[in-house]
Amino acid sequence: MTEDLPPEQERLVDAVKQRAERRRRARGLPSFARNFGQIGVLGWQVVVPALIALAIGRWLDHRLSSGIFWTAPLLILGVSLGCWSAWKWIGRQ
């Protein structure tokens, strides 16, 4: 096809082919914004259960006057639950 084209047009055809090939390869890679968004989702998946567990633990300790008897274990439980949830989410992606 390019044998009968002038040299300027051959370069143009080659450039278009290269650009099309780059686009095909780029579609397989996630964008920076997508990766950044996924990091944010992972962060929230760990932080939200930890904060909920922390709030429940502080409330229980305040009601029962028990120092940090409930806060520490519930915080560890919340972080563990959040990490497990994030791990499962990564597996689905």
UniProtKB/TrEMBL annotation:
Keywords: Membrane, Transmembrane, Transmembrane helix. The chain crosses the membrane at residues 32-56, 68-87. InterPro entries: ATPase_gene1, ATPase_put. Pfam families: ATPase_gene1. Coiled coil: none annotated. The keyword Transmembrane helix applies. This is ATPase F0F1. The lineage of its organism: Bacteria, Pseudomonadati, Pseudomonadota, Alphaproteobacteria, Sphingomonadales.
